[in-house]
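Take just one protein record:
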Amino acid sequence: MRRRNWVKFAAVTLTAALALAGPTGASAAGEKKIKLGVVTWIGYGPLYIAETLDLWKKYGLKVKLQNFTDPALLPGAIMGGALDGGFITYDQLVGQVAKGDTMKAVMPLDFSNGGDAVVATLDIKDIAGVKGQKVAFAPLSPSDFLLSFALRKQGLKDSDIQAVGAGPEAVPAAMASGQVKVGVTYEPMVSQITSSEGGKKFHVIYSSKQSPGLLSDVLVFTDKSMKTRQDMIKAVMRGYLDGLDMIRKKPKDAAKIIGKALGISEQEVLEQQQTIYALSLPEMLTAFTKAPVPESFYTACAAIADILQTKGQIAKSPACENTMETRFIQALLAK
């Protein structure tokens, strides 16, 4: 599956445009600023809350969240300096580190537990039925990775389907128009698809719930940023954790804020939150600990690298310890 030329052009154009604004530093009033890249995702609820309620202010930080419609563009923007850091999926990070990028995850946020899915028309019953079909998804994205994993479990290859390039937010339109019968995306787009036409046309045939620990979201920074922005990184993490605390203690109030950010109802927020598992601070450290369990990133790293090598996206597996940095979590736990 090759990344198409228009995606390459968009990556160059967007990175150049963001670079004009440049990563943020300190404001005239002395408040520190930082720019982070994100995509639209139900798992980023704590971020939407932190941004709306300005939860980072008490830590002396102003965070600007720069939204990307194509997750494949995020790593390049981070490495190119257009962003100070960002939120990507761990499979993306493994691929980037394998190619030589010097960035690491400082905090794992969540495990996708059904939030990422392969969706199809009702006549296609399972992944086996995808063979020969046109499938809409974003190349070099978590959707690309999930599809490859699902096909592999069924004994199929990437070449057994016809790839149709579409950003995660464009997949619902591609399916509604009849351009494709199968799409791969994540929440809230999955629910948007399955609920369309009264819920009588599309359904989920495979999701991240069937591959626990495989898809997860992480906060990443370059090695350079981790040396020069240590306090800012810890402040970002604290604001996120405050947002997560609100979700757990005041779920309905939190759902109002998240719903407004995503353009969905409070009830839809509460339902879609069931498709992810958000990690507590102690669980974050456990996820970065080497252990033969699905919840360990070391386990996920090996599985991810194997698939990416099979797809020809990387030449060799990276050292898993080079994809994560635990000292920031440990510092917060010590407080």
Q: What stands out?
A: The mean pLDDT is 91. The radius of gyration is 19 Å. The chain has two domains: 5-112+214-333, 116-210. The CA atoms of residues 152 and 158 lie 8 Å apart.
